[in-house]
Specification:
Layout: H1 5-9, E1 13-16, E2 24-31, E3 40-46, E4 55-56, E5 62-76, E6 82-98, E7 104-111, E8 119-121, E9 124-128, E10 132-135, E11 154-156, H2 179-225
Antiparallel strand pairs: 1-2, 2-7, 3-6, 3-9, 4-7, 5-6, 8-11, 9-10
């Protein structure tokens, strides 16, 4: 098992932060050593047909661009809009060749399809100063991916999470609070403060009246003595 670890870690792999169907996920593509000890200059990531777009994350060591393609026929999306083009590739170009002894990571934000159990493959072409490695092999049914020399990075979609709105990775607006309940709580607090103020006022009035009566009584007693 340990003997197989170095080979596996040398592959280009896509590590998702989530895999739930119909959710937004961040896919981190780890760049392994260069092509036979040659520095990496470009990474071309091909999106599977199930995805219409991807948002690349800025990496200060690379420039990035989207490559689009014309669809054979218009495609209607779940939100009712129709598209005639899709993003087919994301191309990262190194500002300086990546040392083959170092690693880097490229991150894409994608909307996973609503197809639990589906494995998405992202064929990736690693171009180096000398040569290139085409990480595009897809295992046949029943074939072990580890048996492939240059497997394509992949992500397997899992069952949707109940109650999820699918916008977590894009800062979805939280549902508004129940205004009826909030108003009820606020009124209760105001009522309590109102009763407390009224009680304090009555107590002050009573004390003030008692003091006034004592003062009158004292003054009246003094006058009678004179």
């Amino acid at each position: 098992m340990l003997a197989g670890l170095p080979a596996a870690s040398a592959h280009v792999e896509a590590t998702p932060d989530k895999t739930a169907a119909n959710s937004y996920a961040l896919l981190t593509f780890g760049i392994p050593h260069g092509c036979d000890k040659s520095g990496t200059t470009k990474m071309t990531i091909t999106l599977p047909a199930e995805l219409n777009d991807a948002q690349p994350t800025v990496n200060p060591n690379w420039t990035v661009q989207k490559v689009t393609e014309q669809l054979p026929e218009p495609k209607k999306l779940d939100n009712g809009t129709t598209i005639t083009k899709r993003t087919s590739q994301i191309v990262y170009t190194a500002k300086a060749p990546l040392d083959p002894e170092l690693r880097d990571a490229l991150v894409l934000s994608v909307k996973l399809p609503d197809t639990a159990g589906k494995t998405l493959y992202f064929p990736t072409l690693q171009t180096c100063e000398q040569g290139q490695t085409d990480w595009s092999q897809i295992p046949q049914e029943g074939q072990d991916e580890e048996s492939l020399k240059a497997p394509a990075p992949s992500v397997t979609v899992t069952a949707a999470v109940a109650g999820a709105d699918g916008h977590g990775a894009h800062g979805a607006v939280e549902p508004a609070a129940d205004t009826t309940q909030v108003a009820s709580v606020d009124d209760g607090g105001a009522g309590a403060r109102s009763w407390a103020g009224l009680a304090a006022g009555l107590a002050g009035l009573v004390l003030g009246g008692a003091a006034f009566l004592r003062s009158r009584a004292k003054n009246g007693s003094g006058t009678a003595t004179r």
